[in-house]
Amino acid sequence: MSDKGTSYRVGGSYSIPQELKNSILEETTSGNAEEHSDVLQERMKQRTIYNKEDDYHKRRHDLKKKRDIDQVDDQVNETTQIVKRKKKSRWDVQSYVMPEESKATVQEMNEIDNIPSGMNLKYFKASDKIHFQLILKRDSEVNMSEEEQKRYKYLVLLLKVKNGSTQIRRDSMKQLISKCDTFGPKIIFDCTLPILLDRSLEDQERHLLIKFLDRLLFKLGSSLRPFAKDVLAVLSPLLIDEDPTVRVTGRDVISNLASATGLVTMLQVIRPDMENEDDYVRNIAARLLAIISRPLGINNIIPFIDAACHSRNSWRSRHTGIKSIGQISKLFGIAQLPYLNSMMQCVSNGLDDEHTSIRMLTANTIATLAEDSYPYGIESFNIILEPLWRGLRKHRGKMLAAFVRCLASIIPLMDTEYAGYYTEELLHIVSREFYSPDEEMRRAILIVLQKCAKVETVTPRYLREEIGPIFFKNFWNRRVALDKNLNKMVTYTTVVLAEKMGSAYIVEELLKPLRDDSEPFRFMAIHAVDRVVQVVGTTELDSRLESRLIDALLIAFQDQKDGDPVIFRCFGTVAESLGIRMKPFLSPIVSAILNQLRHKDKIIRQNAADLCCILIPVIKECGEIEMINKLNIILYESLGEMYPDVLGSIIKVIGSILSVMDFKVLQPPINQILPSLTPILRNNHKKVQLNTVRLIGCVAHKGPDYIPPKEWLRVCFELLELLKSTHKKTRVAANATFGEIAEAVGPQDVLVVLLNNLKVQERQLRVCTAVAIGIVAKVCGPYTVLPAMMNEYKTPETNVQNGILKAMTFMFEYIGPMSQDYVYFISPLLEDALVDRDLIHRQTAATVVRNIALNCIGVGNEDIFIHLLNLLMPNVFETSPHVIIRILDGLEALNYAVGPGIFMNYIWAGLFHPAKNVRNTFWKLYNKIYVGNTDALVPHYPGLQDEENKIEELDWVL
């Protein structure tokens, strides 16, 4: 053999005989086979292609190097055993077997089972082994010291809070809060804070632990002070989290920490971070100073910040102090006004600071203070006007942008005379910077134009002649259209300028972008036109400009390649604003729409239908009835559209036509349109279903007599399937349409369909049917529905009876004060339901009682409500969460119906019952009544026999 590599022979043996090698491998693997065997892993191995091959073909995987040519002849001469490859058959495929538990799953379950105290955890992660080692040791508590026993008990409760079920978590958190003085802050924070710093902690777990800390802070009080630094180290990263909810939670917890520990402790903790070299740490320190100023008061924090802003030893300290002023301004808003003078004193020297970053930060902070103080506080800014003006004259680049933005924010606070002077000077400075490629400067220019355009001394003529041309030349281009944030700022600035310059000038300048080949640029112009017309209107536009605008919008619509709705919205805004002046342009627009409706691209057809839907009210306003009928005929012929998105848009247009047209002149007639829509209800697409149901509801509302009753019943049967739609809007529309159809053809036939629907097994369909019955009762009157419902309640079927009760819930909620006419009528049914064995019966009946009682307060039906109260009160000890909520709501409503005096006679005995569970139940009910009837309860408190505590005024009867 060659020394360069090992040679292999397929038919020969290696360094030892193959049989011996196989036997050795079998002996080594069989020893621990029982310990390491995993049924799932073995089955997976058996199903691999490699395992199904014979031994001869398996050896090819060992040929990792090429063989020498000389060895091939040796192999031919040797005696080799020819192995016939087994022919595979389809019967060799194994059938599916239910998978057994894998070793990993079993190991995880064993880890949870090994945890003592029967904690019933939902899960136990690998990271929990590190933080809860003491629990896993399973040492007897007798062998532990007193400190270890406390730590052990605390970890057990904390693990339940972190990984337990909802009820276990609540109970454990209550125990931790009540026993926090026993555990002490050292154990609490030594065990909790490392868990919060764990990178594998999930959002839900972090939320639970932070909520626990929040509740704990007030309980521990001043004992927190030695641990304030550690707690802040854990909580401060929440202030810069991406999730706004997490940031708000962090602010609340830190505010509570500041209230518990006091001002001195918090400042001692934050002070070292203000001079930290890392900008990340200084940023958090500034935010912390702003947050603690809310519970501790700005006036108490300002002296410390003032000292930091005027520090001579460290520029970082000055930087952090000024940044904290900006954070306070953002946090307090207009509430900062009482402290504005002090805050301006803190930052006044920053505009002349030797460090560039401090000067820029000071300018931005003053801009924030001015914006949050608008329209008050100009006196406080007088001290910085002179250094600010000097900076405007000597700075360039980003520094100049910051100073420009700062002065632009102060100008709206000034009187008219001073605002006019500074605006003129500032616009003179800005006009030479319009060509600047610096992004910060461009944003600053836009802010200046937004602020200065509202100043009275700036005339529209000056803006048109001096500002308008260079603004549109430098900011309305394709590059800006591709920058999302700058795009929005330019559009908003254009709208602000339009308020001063008028819509005619702005629209004329936007005509060229509307015709541009770049689609983002066109959309930017369309957004601007839409908002300008909404704010300013089109009264200034002459006929020539109107024609050019409509022409440009039509070209933009025809060149559109996607389904962005902005073009339709803009078209609708312009058409609505023009009103009757739109009439000369309707013919070419409708021709373009009809042409697009025949296009082969489905998106273009959908866009044409959407635009047509927006223009229908304007066409009707212009009196073009023939045009609408022509569109309706073509759209009716397009109901065979195969793409559901396009079909939904077409049906929406037909619905829009029916809502504005008189059915007497409509073509094709309504009795021809509706039968064609009924089969479309079977289409499962959300958009098609929703628009079809709304269209049918419109027909039922405006012209029910045009459709024969048999056709309406056919529609009802189709609508039944939509009651269980997964789309909520479709279900709501179907229920409303049922009411319209019932009003059209009478409730009897519709009610038969709905009552039969209560016998199905699907709960969602039964609930939607109950809602529909309630709507029918509201539309047609309860007297037309109640006899049939009470007769149906006799059916000895749980689903039907529950459905009737649910329908009554909605019915009495809808009809309101009319309920008083039917209280005695349905009382036998409610008696039966409130004493029924089925829990759901009593739950739903309690909701019916609540709705009736709330609608019958003070109408003189106290006798029947006392009777219902006698039936409902025994259910107060129910343990099911859903049931007890409905029972308590029903009892609270009965309290309003019968009065607190009578109702409290049922409560007094339970409040002082010897059994704890009974007391808890009645105190929960009493608390509800106390919140709603605090003053009315006073005369009904039991009298005291003790002469010392007796209050004679309570015995007076007025």
TrEMBL record:
Coiled coil residues, start to end: none
Biased composition (Basic and acidic residues): 33-57
SUPFAM superfamilies per the UniProt record, alphabetical: ARM repeat
Subcellular location: Nucleus
Keyword Nucleus annotated: yes
Positions of transmembrane segments: none
Region entry Disordered, spans: 1-64
Signal peptide: none
Pfam families named among the record's database cross-references: PPP2R1A-like_HEAT
Nucleotide-binding found in the keyword field: no
An MF annotation (GO) of this entry: mRNA binding
Gene Ontology process terms (BP): spliceosomal complex assembly
Domain Phosphatase PP2A regulatory subunit A/Splicing factor 3B subunit 1-like HEAT repeat, residue spans: 743-815
HEAT repeats: 506-544
GO cellular component, one term: spliceosomal complex
Family matches, as PANTHER family: SPLICING FACTOR 3B, SUBUNIT 1-RELATED
Family: Belongs to the SF3B1 family.
Name this polypeptide is given: Phosphatase PP2A regulatory subunit A/Splicing factor 3B subunit 1-like HEAT repeat domain-containing protein
Source organism of the structure: Maudiozyma barnettii
Lineage, opening ranks: Eukaryota, Fungi, Dikarya, Ascomycota, Saccharomycotina
